[in-house]
Amino acid sequence: xxxxxxxxxxxxxxxxxxxxxxxxxxxxxxxxxxxxxxxxxxxxxxxxxxxxxxxxxxxxxxxxxxxxxxxxxxxxxxxxxxxxxxxxxxxxxxxxxxxxxxxxxxxxxxxxxxxxxxxxxxxxxxxxxxxxxxxxxxxxxxxxxxxxxxxxxxxxxxxxxxxxxxxxxxxxxxxxxxxxxxxxxxxxxxxxxxxxxxxxxxxxxxxxxxxxxxxxxxxxxxxxxxxxxxxxxxxxxxxxxxxxxxxxxxxxxxxxxxxxxxxxxxxxxxxxxxxxxxxxxxxxxxxxxxxxxxxxxxxxxxxxxxxxxxxxxxxxxxxxxxxxxxxxxxxxxxxxxxxxxxxxxxxxxxxxxxxxxxxxxxxxxxxxxxxxxxxxxxxxxxxxxxxxxxxxxxxxxxxxxxxxxxxxxxxxxxxxxxxxxxxxxxxxxxxxxxxxxxxxxxxxxxxxxxxxxxxxxxxxxxxxxxxxxxxxxxxxxxxxxxxxxxxxxxxxxxxxxxxxxxxxxxxxxxxxxxxxxxxxxxxxxxxxxxxxxxxxxxxxxxxx
Length: 544
What we know:
Belongs to the WD repeat DDB2/WDR76 family. It is a single chain. The protein is an alpha+beta fold. It folds into two domains: 9-39; 111-543, Methylamine Dehydrogenase, Chain H, CATH 2.130.10. 17% of the residues lie in helices and 27% in strands. The protein contains nine helices and 29 strands. It has helices spanning 8-33, 61-66, 83-104, 113-116, 125-128, 131-134, 148-152, 157-167, 180-192, and strands at residues 111-112, 117-120, 209-214, 222-227, 232-236, 260-263, 270-275, 282-287, 292-296, 301-306, 317-321, 329-334, 338-343, 353-357, 363-368, 375-380, 384-389, 402-405, 410-415, 420-425, 429-434, 458-461, 476-477, 487-492, 496-501, 506-510, 521-524, 531-534, 540-543. Strands 1-10-9-8-7 form a five-stranded antiparallel beta sheet. It has a five-stranded antiparallel beta sheet with strand order 2-6-5-4-3. A hairpin with a 7-residue loop joins β3 (209-214) and β4. The protein starts with 7 loop residues before the first helix and ends with a strand. Residues 36-40, 56-67, 131-137, 177-201 and 249-253 have low confidence and may be disordered.
């Protein structure tokens, strides 16, 4: 074979190389034309490679005019970086923001039950309030961590008696959704009226329950629940389902509905509520719509008690409280870290409204001490639980009496009548601080505690990882227990409600058949051993 001759193999190899180079060149040009890569440098001969032109999509003008959906600027022939496209996007965004703002803006006027009514039954004064009333780690659903064995091993007689009493509480099932009768009721309601409330005996609000409260009356359990969208549910749980008659089939459609009413006094989440301790006919509700409203339970009229002067000011309320001996002063906290005080006897003026910036981050919850109301505790996102003294609280530079830092954010700080504070934290602990043992009743104005003096007396491991779809777990004390043992309740991620004593001993783990969600929002009746929990679906669980 001479040097000038090329073998068949070499010819095939050169052909493959040429084919590969042509393919790579084609792919490079197509990528440049679609904007995936930067344009190549101009060749030495001065000619620029011509990118392959893409076919322009055809747009039917008639379809563009009548189509209700949004179309891209490219299809409309508007350059991506043009001022027209920018202006159009900004206008659409501003319009959406304004529509959302108007929808969430609070209502400043007073309105009656008819204005707020959403579903259920419209209540009269007699049906709701009567004379006697006026005067831990990953959750494992349904796995108990406290039960009969723990009670049997208890050696303290008083503690054992209380554990037996609390564990004897029964789930309220007058309108049990699992029962056959209610199933038929649900089926009939859905067929008869799509707007009916099919599980009225259990579902107290349309959306996730954020806050709950008992009325202080001992004659019957009156329950209030506030949800994510500003609905207020009210239930009289003393009612009982009528006994079935002889002609069940003929009278099946005449079953009376349970007394349940859902109103909408707020436009956003009802984050806190309380019954006026000196005027039990008035229920105060605080909301993320920046307002605190008072609902007259006799007249069923809701009026705005406090709100910023302008509806454009956003001060989402996170907590509401009142001192037992002062029915005219309202206290609240906000998600902006502000603590406020307002004298309700006068018209809204700057002179009777005082506010303090107590935290750079949101205050999730607070309470006044029932017996020493000049002391109050706050829990905030900055991981601190702080104790404050209203008698010496500077507006310009507020200084706490004491503070304690947790590893993660603190969700709530609840005071009881014995001077004990219970907190829940995202570090999966419940902490109890006993100020009564430190003699706080005799502290003078200006008294402070060093960090080493203000540490929790008891720490209980408790799963507080609620995530995005479950309401934050907050401890709630029984304010007037009928024994010397103080107690509080809190939701359990395993779909129970736990009850603890002030010394950290677990008293009960309340559950029952049919509870399929976490009863995260809880409340303890002031004096009766009644406990209620609310779930993300708006349902309630009541133990009595």
